[in-house]
Design brief:
Layout: E1 2-6, E2 19-23, H1 28-33, H2 44-51, H3 60-69, E3 72-76, E4 78-84, E5 92-96, H4 99-104, E6 110-114, H5 116-125, H6 127-130, E7 134-137, H7 150-157
Parallel strand pairs: 2-3, 2-6, 6-7
Antiparallel strand pairs: 1-4, 4-5
Helix pairs in contact: 2-7
């Protein structure tokens, strides 16, 4: 069943964040937990830990400390939408987040979208306002496991280090 959902938690950032990683809209598990990439099968935290050569952050406090240390901000392109569970393909009636407003209060110089849907939504709703191209990396969702192994994702996400 498609339901209207609001993004219920704020972007994660520090004023000295350099990279903004944008998803499309939080998964149901992330919405329940109130933070980004919280589905246990999503490979986001494993991949970033390997890219930056550290332990996989386990707790929410560890994840936030990891992001701060590496100058990474997290948010989504979509502020509210109609969506079925966590299905990106079902997203309709989009209201976008204020990415430009976030950029004005941080040192973000690179926008990374995770997956095709986040890229499409960014291009449609935000690029013209923000006036910055995004760097598209593959989704770390377990739904993308047939296309990208964890090793493949690590290789792709190495690009993040170029932007720091």
């Amino acid at each position: 069943m498609i339901e209207h959902q609001e993004h219920e938690f704020p972007p994660f950032y520090e004023h000295n964040s350099k990279i903004l990683i944008l998803g499309s809209f939080p998964s149901k598990k992330s919405r329940e937990a109130g933070f980004y990439y919280m589905h246990p099968q999503n490979r986001f935290w494993k991949v970033l830990a390997r890219v930056f050569g550290c332990e996989i952050p386990k707790t929410l406090a560890d994840k936030k400390a990891f992001l701060r240390k590496n100058h990474i901000a997290l948010w989504d392109v979509v502020e509210s939408c109609d969506i079925k569970n966590s299905s990106d393909a079902s997203i309709r009636n989009v209201s976008s987040t204020d990415i430009l407003g976030l950029m004005k209060i941080t040192e973000i110089n690179t926008i990374v979208t995770t997956g095709k849907k986040a890229h499409e939504l960014y291009q449609k709703y935000s690029k013209e306002i923000v006036e910055m191209e995004d760097v598209t990396l593959p989704s770390t969702s377990s739904a993308n496991i047939a296309n990208y192994s964890e090793d493949d994702l690590v290789e792709c996400y190495q690009r993040l280090k170029e932007f720091l």
